[in-house]
Amino acid sequence: MFVDDEKILEVNNEYLGHDYYTDIITFDYDEDDVLNGDLVISLDIVRSNAELFKKSYEDELNRVIIHGILHLCGINDKGPGEREIMEENENKALTLLKEMSGE
């Protein structure tokens, strides 16, 4: 689901008890070996982050979508060393995506 800043803040408050904005919230409903979940993405934050990190909007949106899918695959980013593992997998997936699109 693509939302604005206010909606992502509302979802973050209601479901996670967090009072801050974020680019993505992943709800994981996986059962056995079947990936299943919802990704809630703030397009406002994606746009701001693209400018902040000097990336294209499309690249930043792809990174955020990949980030959510990686969460559904069981990769976390909150514990010691996990952020680096997440970023490494994001970068690999982004590279594959660019290769597949001929970039």
Characterise this structure.
The structure is a single chain. This protein is an alpha+beta fold. It has one domain: 3-Layer(aba) Sandwich (Collagenase (Catalytic Domain)), CATH 3.40.390.30. The chain has four helices and three strands, in the order E-H-E-E-H-H-H. The protein has a three-stranded mixed beta sheet with strand order 1-3-2. The longest helix is centred in the last third of the chain and has 19 residues, at 82-100. The model has no long low-confidence stretch (mean pLDDT 95).
Shape: globular
Structural domains: how many: 1
Radius of gyration: 14 Å
Largest sheet: 3 strands, mixed
CATH superfamily heading: Metalloproteases ("zincins"), catalytic domain
Structural class of the helix and strand makeup?
alpha+beta
| Strand portion | 5-15%
Helix count, DSSP H or I runs of 4 or more residues: 4
The low-confidence parts are none
Strand order of the largest sheet: 1-3-2
Number of strands: 3
Q: Termini, distance in Å?
A: 27 Å
Give short descriptive properties of this protein:
103 residues, alpha+beta, Collagenase (Catalytic Domain), three-stranded mixed sheet, 3 strands, globular, zinc, endonuclease activity, nuclease
